[in-house]
């Protein structure tokens, strides 16, 4: 249009003279100015439309970020895995306004945002197809962890910065990845659209999060290398998981911990197999670590009780709103056992002993027996080992009787976790004599088999069908086998063996002598 006007002015000037040429030249200049004005207005309108679209996209992105912040705040007391991917460092209203001003120029049409809630793969990240890209890569960007310590801890504040070489008027967009760089999402941390951000190190080395920054302008976009942000866990190992403890004994749990500044520790207990946890009444104590190699040992001491069997304890560590939990430590009650010497003959003694750990708090043991209705304290007084061993006389009445040991501590508490022991006793006569039939003048033998540490035999005879008994004077009458020379008058006599073991005498069944 501009070219046609100028050409027309040139032709007319050549025909009608210089004055006419001058007039048309002025008209051409006015027309040129009008066209330029129209083009400028169109460009401004297009810019306003783009800015409006970018502002709307930016608001959508910010709303998504605000949701992440709300989720993190609501779950900051939960375990590490449930905390939001990013920890927001709160800023003042002034800094928040500055950040809001920076977000006016958004890069919503650039790669890396979530679409429909799904992360964009790294391989899909590219610049808008309509943008003209300078493939010469005139921007050079490097990622630096500014304040990194030699051994960072979970809960440290990490400051990341991009150092650039090249073009001016650069824009920045920080991104993070939880899957080793396979997918990336936009960060909502403080300064996420500047050349530096601050994030809280919230993952141990085995659960790291990667960060990178996209640096771009209207011509090109480059991505820094991904940097893993992780640190040493606040809680280490060192606990004796699964060790059994008897009731009444003071015990402890010790865990290796790092002790960076502003770290808070709390022991928690669960009584329902880890379904719910609450703060333990036992306070933690920090001790210098001399065995595990950490900074310190976080300890609690407790006195085991029978009802604590199966309880679980864990250590909670909190630093800069990042929370870690130790592996649960499950208590197991060590039930003390009573051991006996086994079945004993009447007159011997059964020795009962209780095993298990006692600790420095132990006082003595009380022995009880069950009378069929209730437990009754035994009248037998142990005279050694603080009552941990008792000797009971084996009698026919004691056979099947149950005994138990009650452990008494110095503070007076009694513990009944020891299993009861059932006594077994047996007669001193193991085999009974057998009746015999013989002829007068013949010799017959009656014999028994006896038991007992000090068993002694004495054969007896009854001439009135068992009403009265007297010691026999037959041969070997003090042996397990007695010899009788039969006489006609002895027909119907009864013979038995009296076995004496200690203070107990046991009699065999009578055997009948028949003489023909």
How are the elements arranged and paired?
Elements: H1 2-16, H2 18-74, H3 93-102, E1 120-121, E2 140-145, E3 157-165, E4 171-177, E5 183-186, E6 196-200, E7 209-216, E8 221-223, E9 227-229, E10 244-245, E11 250-257, E12 264-270, E13 278-279, E14 285-288, E15 296-303, E16 312-319, E17 322-325, E18 329-330, E19 332-333, E20 338-340, E21 344-345, E22 349-354, E23 362-370, E24 375-377, E25 389-393, E26 402-409, E27 414-415, E28 421-422, E29 425-426, E30 429-431, E31 436-438, E32 443-447, E33 449-450, E34 456-462, E35 470-471, E36 481-485, E37 494-501, E38 504-507, E39 511-515
Parallel strand pairs: 10-19, 21-29, 31-39
Antiparallel strand pairs: 1-5, 2-3, 3-6, 4-5, 4-7, 7-8, 7-9, 11-15, 12-13, 12-16, 14-15, 16-17, 16-18, 20-22, 22-25, 23-24, 23-26, 26-27, 26-28, 30-33, 32-36, 34-35, 34-37, 37-38, 37-39
Helix pairs in contact: 1-2
Which class of the largest domain in CATH terms? Mainly Beta
Total domain modules? 5
Assembly type of the chains comes to: single chain
CATH superfamily of the largest domain: Immunoglobulins
Determine Rg (CA atoms, Å): 49 Å
- Give the total of beta strands: 39
Q: How many DSSP H or I helices?
A: 3
Shape assignment: rod-shaped
Unreliable stretches:
1-135
Biggest β-sheet strands, sense, barrel: 6 strands, antiparallel
Distance between the termini: 162 Å
Can you name the CATH architecture of the largest domain?
Sandwich
Coarse structural class: alpha+beta
């Amino acid at each position: 249009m501009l070219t046609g006007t100028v050409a027309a002015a040139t032709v007319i000037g050549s025909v009608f003279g210089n004055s006419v040429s001058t007039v048309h030249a002025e008209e051409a200049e006015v027309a040129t100015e009008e066209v330029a004005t129209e083009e400028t207005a169109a460009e401004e309108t297009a810019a306003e439309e783009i800015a409006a679209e970018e502002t709307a996209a930016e608001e959508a992105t910010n709303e998504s970020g605000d949701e992440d912040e709300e989720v993190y705040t609501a779950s900051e007391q939960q375990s590490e895995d449930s905390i939001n991917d990013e920890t927001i460092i709160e800023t003042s209203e002034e800094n928040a306004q500055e950040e809001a001003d920076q977000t006016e120029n958004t890069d919503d049409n650039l790669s890396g945002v979530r679409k429909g809630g799904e992360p964009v793969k790294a391989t899909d990240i590219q610049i808008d197809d309509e943008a003209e890209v300078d493939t010469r890569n005139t921007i050079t960007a490097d990622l630096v962890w500014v304040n990194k310590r030699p051994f960072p801890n979970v809960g440290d504040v990490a400051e990341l910065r991009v150092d650039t070489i090249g073009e001016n008027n650069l824009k920045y967009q920080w991104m993070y990845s939880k899957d080793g760089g396979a997918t990336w999402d936009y960060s909502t941390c403080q300064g996420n659209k500047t050349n530096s951000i601050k994030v809280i190190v919230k993952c141990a080395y085995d659960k790291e999060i990667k960060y990178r920054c996209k640096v771009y302008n209207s011509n090109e976009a480059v991505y820094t290398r991904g940097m893993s942000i992780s640190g040493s866990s606040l809680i280490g190992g060192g606990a004796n998981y699964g060790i059994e403890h008897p009731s009444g004994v003071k015990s402890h749990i010790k865990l290796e911990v790092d002790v960076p500044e502003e770290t808070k520790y709390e022991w928690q207990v669960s009584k329902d197999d880890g379904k719910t946890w609450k703060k333990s009444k036992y306070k933690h104590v920090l001790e210098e670590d001399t065995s595990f190699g950490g900074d310190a040992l976080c300890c609690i001491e407790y006195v085991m009780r029978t009802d604590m069997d199966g309880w679980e304890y864990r250590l909670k560590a909190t630093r800069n709103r990042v929370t870690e939990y130790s592996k649960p430590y499950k208590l197991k009650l060590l039930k003390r056992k009573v051991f006996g010497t086994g079945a004993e003959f009447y007159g011997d003694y059964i020795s009962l002993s209780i095993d298990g750990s006692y600790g420095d708090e132990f006082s003595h043991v009380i022995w009880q027996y069950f009378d069929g209705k209730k437990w009754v304290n035994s009248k037998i007084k142990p005279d050694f080992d603080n009552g941990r061993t008792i000797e009971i006389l084996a009698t026919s009445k004691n056979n099947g009787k149950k005994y138990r040991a009650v452990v008494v501590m110095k503070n007076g508490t009694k513990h009944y976790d020891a299993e009861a022991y059932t006594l077994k006793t047996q007669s001193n006569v193991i085999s009974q004599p057998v009746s015999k039939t013989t002829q007068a003048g013949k010799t017959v033998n009656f014999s028994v088999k006896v038991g007992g540490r000090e068993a002694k035999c004495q054969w007896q005879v009854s001439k009135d069908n068992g009403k009265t008994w007297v010691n026999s004077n037959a041969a070997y009458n003090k042996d397990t086998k007695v010899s009788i020379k039969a006489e006609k008058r002895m027909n119907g006599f009864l013979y038995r063996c009296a076995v004496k073991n200690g203070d107990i005498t046991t009699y065999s069944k009578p055997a009948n002598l028949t003489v023909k």
